[in-house]
Amino acid sequence: MIIGLIIGAVIVGIARILFRHIHDRVPPSPTIARLHPPGPKGLPWLGNIFQIPYDSAWEVYREWGKQFESDIIRVRAPGMNIVILNSVAAITDLFEKKSAIYSDRPYSTLLHELVGFGWALAASGYGERLRDLRKVLHQEFNADAVKRYRVIETQFCYQLLNDIFHEPDRFSYHIRRMIMKAIYDIDLKAHDDPYVSIAEEAVEAMSTAASAGVFLVDILPFLKMLPEWFPGAGFQREAKRWKYAAAQMLNRPWENVKSRMAHGEVFECATTRLLERADEDTSKDPDCTHAIIAEGVGSMYGGAIDTGTSVLTSFILAMMLHPEAQQKAQAELDEVVGKNELPTYSDVEKLPYVGALVAECFRSLPVTPIAVPHRVMEDDIYKGYFIPKGSTVISNLYAILHDEKVYPNPEKFDPERYLKDGKWNPAVQDATSIVFGLGRRICPGRFMAKDVLWMSIALILSVFRISKAMDDDGNEITPEQSFLPGLIVLPAPFKASIKVRSDAHADLIKGIRPQE
């Protein structure tokens, strides 16, 4: 009986694929020539299903762009048309200038249905709910509003310094502690806190499941009906585990904050500010508003915990491998701020090299080398190429930020590419203006993220010396520049030596008072 149902589902699924394939071959109108963007030749019916890469897709797509001499390329899979954009001009033309039709997200059977991540801002389809989410977050985190957070942000960054000072080998964990404190004011345990393990598993799910064309169930949705014991249906087990983690990441810290507020506890974080603002507006249903806030801060937390960890971990790795850049930044900090003081937000404009170093960390390894996919909502023509409605459209941020025409010698870590005569050069494309998205899908938390990351990096450089770790024989350990797969890319675990620059710098750390 069960086998019969499975066979029936397979037959129906194949029939649907054939229908969609035939439908895709029919021109939308006699006036539109179906000239698709160039791309690798695929197989009949199956397209490029065996060529779509899982690991380092950004490098493969970049090479295809060079091979076909085009900044827009196309790959196919059954029922899927995927368009990859390899230039800043292309993503600006489509995601900003044509944002009215390029702001949707592709529906993922795995991500939305099996894992249940549809509530996340990055995964939400374009519509009223997305606009409500963005409005709530924009009110609290726009460029002017985030300045009120700078005092508390500095306190969180001080705590990060203190944590690294006492346990330098666990810097990734300390970064996650800082993010949880900022968004929910929850103090994590010094070791193995369940909030962290839940969030790591949920973000792994989001990062892995959101990669376009990677999972067969997204190409052949009928596979969702297969039981997990069926050969090839191992994704069902992963989906079950991820679904639990996604729900826990959304609900558990949210309920913690609501419970503490209900018991009269007074504390300040991003969540309490949003709730206080919502409670002042009596014109809206509080339950509905609170649900939107829960999803909004859950999205911020999910995005920050991996984005923040990725950027700061990549920064640590870059300082190990490029000590000359670290030394120049520290010389600037010593000259401008002084060896007996810590930088503040008032020093941002006075520290152009530090700002350039932060931008180069974003550029050299983008957190999302392949950005979250968009979905076009109408047939479109771009540069003479036909992009049919429903196509998945992807920004290859790695290719864009390694374009030799914009960034000469792009493989070199070189903060000075952003400077001219010791000052910021506006003629050079700032990586931070791209990596947070464009148009109606731009990250609403980008201003706070840039503030916190700048402060974290400036403070770490002020007091710590980052270098390669030593093995038991006293030899330097040079880490391999390898990265964990997924939409959000993290450097593979590595060892680093993080020590205070001097006794005076140790006294600076001991003298700061992190928020209680």
From TrEMBL:
It is found in: Membrane. One of its GO terms (cellular component) is membrane. Its main location: membrane. Heme binds at C443. This is Cytochrome P450. Belongs to the cytochrome P450 family. The keyword Cell inner membrane does not apply. Pathway: Secondary metabolite biosynthesis. It is a single-pass membrane protein. Keywords: Heme, Iron, Membrane, Metal-binding, Monooxygenase, Oxidoreductase, Transmembrane, Transmembrane helix. Its cofactor is heme. The keyword Metal-binding applies. Pfam families: p450. GO terms for molecular function: heme binding; iron ion binding; monooxygenase activity; oxidoreductase activity, acting on paired donors, with incorporation or reduction of molecular oxygen. InterPro entries: Cyt_P450 (IPR001128), Cyt_P450_CS (IPR017972), Cyt_P450_E_grp-I (IPR002401), Cyt_P450_sf (IPR036396), Cytochrome_P450_fung (IPR050364). It comes from the Eukaryota.
